[in-house]
Amino acid sequence: MTEPIRLQPGDDFPEFTLSDQDGKQVSPSDFRGSKLVVYTFPQAFTPGCTQEACDFRDSDARLTAAGYKVLSLSADSVDKLAKFKTEYELPYTLLSDPAHEVQTRLAAYGEKNNYGRIVEGAIRSTFLVDEDGKVIEALYNVKATGHVDRILNKLGDS
After folding, report:
1. What pLDDT is recorded for position 3?
2. Share of the chain above pLDDT 70, in %
3. pLDDT one-digit tens code per residue, 30-52
4. Beta partners for 71?
5. Which has more confidence, 111 or 72?
6. Nearest CA-CA partner of 128 in 155, 147, 96
7. What is the arithmetic mean of pLDDT over 80-104?
8. Nearest 5°: phi and psi at 34?
9. Are 52 and 148 in contact (CB under 8 A)?
10. Per residue in 56-71, pLDDT tens?
């Protein structure tokens, strides 16, 4: 299997269109003029993914104050994402990528080491994108716990 090329600072963030938790079509270009935090996660309602989603929720005001909007994406269905958003009162958009097409393009899906076994799956990743759609930073294989605090520290908002 050919490993997708990981994004680097200065790269154009890939354009795509996915359905959000309400079935509305959403693209990164819809947010031009705003900075974005785009994070990928393996599966809604699992402990690590729920922790990460709630950390982003709890830091929404700080991210907004720094000029960022948050988008997340996973392979979960639109219906499951709608339930996840409602249950945890997530203030940001959740995108459904059921065939892993976008995650694969972002190098956020593929072979990974899972407790000593090589498996294919979602690679928890986060991308900081500027107002013009350029990658500021691409973070791969991040840990769910404490990840949002590390992003805020990178933004100078500790």
Report:
1. 59
2. 97
3. 999 999 999 999 999 999 999 99
4. 38, 93
5. 72
6. 155
7. 97
8. -120, 150
9. yes
10. 999 999 999 999 999 9
User: Is 44 in contact with 95 (CB distance < 8 Å)?
Assistant: no
pLDDT average, residue stretch 131-155? 91
Question: Any idea how long the chain is?
Answer: 158
SS3 for the chain, per residue? Answer: CCCCCCCCCCCECCCCCEEECCCCEECHHHHCCCEEEEEECCCCCCHHHHHHHHHHHHCHHHHHHCCEEEEEEECCCHHHHHHHHHHCCCCCEEEECCCCHHHHHCCCEEEEEECCEEEEEECCEEEEECCCCEEEEEECCCCCCCHHHHHHHHCCCC
Global pTM reads 0.92
d(CA 138, CA 46): 24
Q: Which residues are catalytic?
A: 49
Instruction: Measure the CA–CA gap between 39 and 60, rounded to whole angstroms.
Output: 14
Residue 158 CB partners (closer than 8 Å, separation 6+)? 152
Residue recorded with tokens 């269109």:
17
Tokens in use for 7?
């994004």
Alpha carbon distance 154, 136 (integer Å) = 11
